[in-house]
Amino acid sequence: MVNKVCFVGAGSMAESIISGILKSGFLTNHQIFVTNKSNQERLARLQQRYDINETTDKQQAIEDADIIIFATKPYDIEEAIDQVKTHIQSGQLIISVVAGISTAYIHQKIGKTAPIIRAMPNTSASIGFSATAITAGENTGQEHLELAEILFNTIGYTTIVDEADMHAVTSISGSGPAYFYYVVEAMEKAAIEAGLDENIAKALITQTIVGAGEMLQNTGEPANILREKITSPGGTTQAAIETLDRDDFQQTIMKCVRSARDRSIELGEKED
Q1: CA separation for the pair 218, 89 (Å, rounded)
Q2: What is the value of pTM for the model shown?
Q3: 3-class SS at 91?
Q4: How far is residue 142 from each of residues 104, 105, 116, 149, 151, measured CA to CA in Å?
Q5: At what angle do helices 249-269 and 236-246 cross, to 10 degrees?
């Protein structure tokens, strides 16, 4: 039973999770508290938008919370922990959605035996379609992992991974939506240049990407087979794919995933 969840950090990831949780009905707005370093304007906007509890009083935010979610930028996590650690109790579940930061680091900075879970959702959480990976840290029991899984299942799909895999997860599902948005941007520009109405182009492209996702999820067929099925010899799709191949599109995507993973590793290495 969860009665109170506190978010430490009030950025886009925190807002996405809050929005998704409220839409799912898992928690009411009165059960959610949010605090941050000092941006009162941001806290006020979240309060107005979601009717949740906002405060800069760290003790008020933390005390009696069943779950404390750190949702800061990586370079802010140390200061965020320092601001709240005196109010954290050993029985509270700590969840971090901070990219690149290990559970061991958070445990060391908190200095208490509270259970810690590291999670990597994405901003699709706001509409209940996040792809989230979670991993257990020190002092974390099966019951804590199950509670985190229940929480993140309210905002999409959740899977449990080894912590060593979290850097790869960050580069795939954490950053992944941005890759697809980037492709959609290019398709919209090309469609408009070809004379298509902007609204029509947006609607068609949006439904196309939704449909492709549903095909991947519901048919069980791998991406290469689905691609081959619509690539007729000498047809329009083949012409397009040949252009992508000439420009090493697959290699570029693989490079961008590796770059995101490397950056996640770098953020972790800066812990000390």
Answers
A1: 44
A2: 0.89
A3: coil
A4: 18, 21, 12, 10, 14
A5: 50
Whether 15 and 142 share a structural domain: yes
- 63, amino acid identity: E
Residues 111 and 213 in one domain: no
Judge whether 122 lies within some domain. yes
- Domain that residue 260 falls in: 176-267
Could you tell me the pLDDT band of residue 272, with boundaries at 50, 70 and 90? low
Taking only the tens place, the pLDDT of each residue in 203-222 is 999 999 999 999 999 999 99
- Residue 188 inside a domain? The answer is yes
Indicate the residue type of 55.
T
> How far apart are the C-alpha atoms of 46 and 29, rounded to whole Å?
11
* DSSP annotation of 171: I
For the chain, what is the domain count?
2
pLDDT tens for 5-26 read 999 999 999 999 999 999 999 9
